[in-house]
Amino acid sequence: MRNNGILRIIARFLIPLIMLFALYIQFHGEYSPGGGFQAGVVFAAAWILFALIYGLDAALDVIPERAMYVLMLVGVLIYAGVGVAGVVLGGHFLDFRPLLDDPQYAQQFGIVTVELGIGITVSTVTMLIFTMFVQRRADSLEAGEND
Amino acid sequence: MLFAIYSLLSAALFAVLDAGDVALTEAAVGAGISTILMLALLALVPRREAEAPRPHWPALAVVVLTGSVLIYATLDFPEFGNPDNPVQTHVGPYYVEETYNDMGIPNMVAAVLASYRSIDTMGEGFVILTAGLAVYALLGTRRRKPKGEQKKQETPGS
Description:
The structure holds two protein chains of two kinds.
Chain A: H1 5-27, H2 36-54, H3 56-62, H4 65-88, H5 103-143
Chain B: H1 2-16, H2 20-44, H3 57-74, H4 86-89, H5 92-103, H6 108-116, H7 118-139
């Protein structure tokens, strides 16, 4: 669909806005509706729109498949790591209060960090599922067995 | 398509009901990502449905039985919208009153999700990771190329 001018121009305007909005609901999630899950999905949606317009190969140049494997684990590890950090600093698992001196700031720090982990995992898993589907489609087209 | 429209309408309904978080999720996941994944899936499957075998009566019996048990269980639900319901009286008031003192943030949904019920949310993160791993396990193996042709495309990944 790269040759369709309307799609290309609209997408070029929209994709940065969608990504910016995703970052907004990621890092402003404590004050307004939103959070890691929504931000991850919106970010992945922007990437999928890019893949639909410019092709999957161009999109995989931006975020390679290998990076998705790593990042989806990194997201969960960030989450669990914050929990373990609470244990190491003398609290319960996923207890944020020992992390910083002020309990309110510690809670906010914990919330922002775990939301970041969730956002990374959700967005990369969504991208990965889309990539898998499209690649399997390309493979079966290549094998010529799709009627 | 109908599911996407349904999700978009429910997102609008949630927005009207002041449930911004749920509306955002419904619009992004239900109307956006699910539709795209469903279309990608439809492109994968063959165009014709496989010939269905005879109806499987034990399976039908199990489904009907489970469904009727679930419907029977809904009779025990507390009255809809009653202010004395457990959901209104158990931990809900604590969250409404104390979230700002505990966390200093106004969004109670984020506070409950990420701090009060953090282990649940971590479980959800692992569920999503598992979903990704499952799709990778099912679809991640590249199909073996026929011998003799397209030798240069045998590099893994693309």
